[in-house]
Amino acid sequence: MKNIMKQFMKASRIRVLPVMLIPVALGALGAFVWDGNFNIWLLLLTLVGSGAAHLFSNMINDLWDYYNGTDEAAKQAEGVISTNSGYLTNGTWTIRTFAAVTWSLFGIAAISGIILSVISGWPVIVFGGLGGLIAYFYVAPPIRFGYRGKGYSEIAILLSFGILPVAGAYYVQSSQLDYRALLLSLPIGLLTTLILFNHHFLHWQADKQAGKKTLVVVWGEWRALVFSRWLLVLAYVSLVICVLAGALPWYALLGLATAVPLYAVYGKLKEHNPSQAYLPLMGNSVKATNRCGVILIAALIIQGLL
Question: Which among 286, 278, 148 is positioned nearest to 222, based on CA atoms?
Fold first, then answer.
């Protein structure tokens, strides 16, 4: 049983789950601070449903990347860092087993969404349904917008890990919408978008070989790195805007400090770099997102209790 759990954790890439749970917590805390509405049981069910949806997204992407040949290209390309679990390319799990686990996670997310919609209102289904469609068609035909290299995938990540979970969790608690929830979704959503964008640097050559046109493939390394820096700046500027607009208290500005270690990494990168050189960029992107998210959560908790 222990071995099965370890395999599931690797196959679903459960270690990255905080990038979904943090925005959900922020949305719920927004309702607590702004409206005085907070139900712990609704929050827990929202966390379960959104967490299952995120793991479904990870696994359905791996499944379709395998069908599309992207994972095999990453495995064979020299110097490329593969970021999938390897369970399909290595034969650790059969396609049938992998698909069964994937769709079981979708089932958990769907059931959670239905229950929440009955309690809080039908718009919950809209939030969840949009997230599900984005997760599936990110790499699945006929849309496969993650392969098109026109910024569709970046917009999808901002929606899936920023606007939808924050606004959705806020709506679950309050049964209404608020512009502050939209503002609150931007710092964490843009930082998560940065993670996924920087993730493409690790295997962009294999993506190019497989016909996956990410912006790194379309623009090339240097232009993509310039965009990556501006995305970082935009994320933290949006944090300042949240404070100025009253969506966050002033002490949430402590989150700006989390940008420093990540920004320092850019100075060590050249116009062309081996895949391994991007590992610090990827690692610090994840750390900045999680640390900033925790600071924003703490700031809202303090504000709500004062």
Answer: 278
